[in-house]
Write a structure and sequence with these properties.
CATH topology of the largest domain: Pyrimidine Nucleoside Phosphorylase, Chain A, domain 2
Shape: globular
Number of domains: 3
Order of helices and strands: HHHHEHEHHEHHEHEEHHHHHEEHEEEHEE
Helix content: 40-55%
Low-confidence stretches: none
CATH superfamily of the largest domain: Nucleoside phosphorylase/phosphoribosyltransferase catalytic domain
CATH architecture of the largest domain: 3-Layer(aba) Sandwich
Largest sheet: 6 strands, mixed
Strand content: 15-25%
Number of strands: 13
Strand order of the largest sheet: 3-2-1-4-5-13
Number of helices: 17
Structural class: alpha/beta
Mean pLDDT: 94
CATH class of the largest domain: Alpha Beta
Length: 435
């Protein structure tokens, strides 16, 4: 085969065979196909798209480009979840312990955050002593022993995706549903779980801005999962305002602890209960979503989910006293309040502005080498639908950066709250479940 022929075929709207896709992925991973040809093919895919068979073939080729984790030593059904990312998304820290306390085994490999705030790993690492780098043998033992482990991805997991994503990021070829779907699913499938729940977000704080695009991405990923015989489902969730109230690493851990203690924000609790319900159906613990949601609520109420979170923290070297007493977490040097400059109802909160503001305060990374401040971030005081008067508090900020640097951020946060004269009914957090 010749790479130039494959590029031309896709450019002209042709359907690539599994052999052609394997040739490309293998050659690009090994370095025998140069960046400029990979970029040309990626651009052709952006314009021409891929059908279901092509997308499944691309996902499988990337999945097998490196290590594929064998979780067969773990007893019972192995479940996993993945979020497409958002502002204030700390769902795994609540959903994982809930489902583990119900008897399914959550074996999750996660990535670091790049952008608005830290990823799940960065949030967990804000717990003193917590390690997210476990050898596979220890990872498997922990999941067998306590039913849950959340760790970083191994270095050799899906190398094709690492190369291709870095290339897409600088060549204007990120916005392609087949490429996004295969990137996400290749990593999830290589991680070895039996079932996968995808939390696909849409809105100002999500990669997919519209529900139509989010639905298309979710359906594509579910089709990929079906194509390799994995029970894959998706929920479409709203990200037109921060999830919960906390945005920032240890701030989000504290909110997760509050939620496991039964005191979480309504939107965050609703999402966690719904997601846990779906996973419990996938894990065959219950037969209906309603039963799953009821069981999830019961595990929060009786303290089982919190105890499971503490067991995971302890097993991974974390100081459990911080979970029992979250006031021990380090607090930023500076705390400022952000006030409304007008009367009205909160019509929406621009998540992107809130996310960028949190990053500027130290809670996220502008580049992969940036160091995250675990205590920095924002607590949102008013949510969509709230009535506010001029001078009411909208949010709190926490940061170690100097006052000259954070004063413009306060203005940005104030501007992110879009006030209007008429009353607003908040949208539901969970829009749809795709099976």
């Amino acid at each position: 085969m010749r790479m130039a022929d494959i590029i031309t075929k896709k450019r002209d709207g042709g359907v690539l065979s599994e052999q052609e896709i394997n040739f490309f992925v293998e050659g690009y991973t090994k370095g025998t196909i140069p960046d400029y040809q990979a970029s040309a093919l990626a651009m052709a895919i952006v314009f021409q798209g891929m059908n279901k068979d092509e997308t499944v073939a691309l996902t499988k080729a990337m999945m097998y480009s490196g290590d594929v984790v064998d979780l067969s030593q773990i007893k019972g059904v192995k479940v996993d979840k993945h979020s497409t990312g958002g502002v204030g998304d700390k769902t795994s820290m609540v959903v994982g312990p809930i489902v583990a306390s119900c008897g399914v085994r959550l074996a999750k490999m996660s990535g670091r955050g790049l952008g608005h705030t830290g990823g799940t790993l960065d949030k967990l690492e804000s717990i003193p002593g917590m390690s997210i780098s476990l050898p596979i043998g220890r990872f498997i033992k922990q999941v067998n022993d306590i039913g849950i482990a959340i760790i970083g991805q191994t270095a050799d997991l899906v190398p094709a995706d690492k190369k291709l994503y870095a290339l897409r990021d600088v060549t204007g070829t990120v916005e392609s549903i087949p490429l996004i779907a295969s990137s996400i699913m290749s990593k999830k499938l290589a991680s070895g779980a039996d079932t996968i729940l995808l939390d696909v977000k849409f809105g100002s704080g999500a990669f997919m801005k519209t529900i139509e695009d989010a639905r298309k991405l979710a359906r594509t990923m579910v089709e990929i999962g079906d194509g390799v015989k994995r029970d894959t489902r998706a929920i479409l969730t709203d990200m037109d305002q921060p999830l919960g109230r906390a945005v920032g690493n240890n701030l989000e851990v504290k909110e997760a602890i509050d939620t496991l203690n039964g005191h979480g924000p309504d939107d965050f609790v609703t999402l966690c209960i719904k997601a846990a319900g779906v996973i419990l159906v996938q894990g065959k613990v219950v037969s209906t979503l309603e039963e799953g949601e009821a069981l999830a609520r019961a595990k929060i109420k009786d303290g089982s989910a919190l105890n499971k979170f503490k067991a995971m923290v302890k097993a991974q070297g974390g100081d459990v006293s911080y979970i029992d007493n979250p006031s021990q977490f380090v607090v930023s040097k500076h705390h400022e309040e952000v006030y409304a400059d007008a009367d009205g109802y909160v019509g929406r909160i621009d998540c992107l502005e809130i996310g960028v503001a949190a990053m500027q305060l130290g809670a996220g990374r502008a580049t992969k080498d940036d160091v995250i401040d675990p205590a920095a971030g924002i607590i949102v005081d008013k949510k969509v639908g709230a009535k506010v008067s001029k001078g009411d508090k909208l949010a709190d900020i926490y940061t170690d950066v100097d006052a000259v640097s954070y004063q413009p951020v306060i203005v940005d946060i104030q501007r992110a709250f879009k006030l209007q004269k008429d009353e607003v009914t908040p949208r539901p957090i969970v829009y749809e479940i795709i099976e």
